[in-house]
Design goal:
about 150 residues; Arc Repressor Mutant, subunit A; two-stranded antiparallel ribbon; WH_DNA-bd_sf; DNA-binding transcription factor activity; TR_Rrf2-type_CS; Rrf2 family protein
């Protein structure tokens, strides 16, 4: 089940990859167009995973804990989506049913394989890769205005 946290976390990390100094959560949330408090919860998970560092105070903000080319997207996903991509059923199956008695274990096997495949795919890309691609696909920066 997708929550959007991975996309938001990746966006924030791509911004930090391009920053020369620490960025405040307000500046990050303005680019992402999300609630700063929600973003701070995601940033806290990234910090706990050792992907970013947080500094308090006037010159505070967030910055990458290591170079963007050394942060794999699989690490980002694991930090913000620890439950994986496929959620189990919220229903308690009927244990007397031949299917119901084994469906949870059978489904867990499928979900585990799917999550492993997802993580393998994400491990092929880094934050630097996605930041560079986003810049390439994004709007070009406006040309400087020449004075008179």
């Amino acid at each position: 089940m997708s929550s959007g946290r991975f996309a938001i976390a990746t966006h924030a990390l791509a911004l930090l990859a391009q920053a020369d100094e620490s960025c405040a959560s307000d500046a990050l949330s303005a680019s992402i167009n999300t609630n700063p408090a929600f973003l701070r919860r995601i940033l806290a998970r990234l910090s706990q995973a050792g992907l970013i560092e947080a500094r308090e105070g006037r010159s505070g903000g967030y910055r990458l804990a290591r170079p963007a080319k050394k942060i794999r997207l699989s690490e980002v996903y694991a930090a913000v989506e620890p439950e994986g991509a496929i959620a189990p059923s919220p229903c308690e199956p009927n244990a007397r049913c031949p299917i119901g008695s084994g469906i949870q274990r059978a489904f867990d096997e499928v979900a585990e394989a799917a999550n492993a495949g997802l993580l393998r795919g994400l491990a092929q890309k880094t934050v630097a890769d996605i930041a560079l691609r986003a810049q390439h696909l994004g709007r070009p920066a406006p040309a400087p205005v020449k004075a008179g």
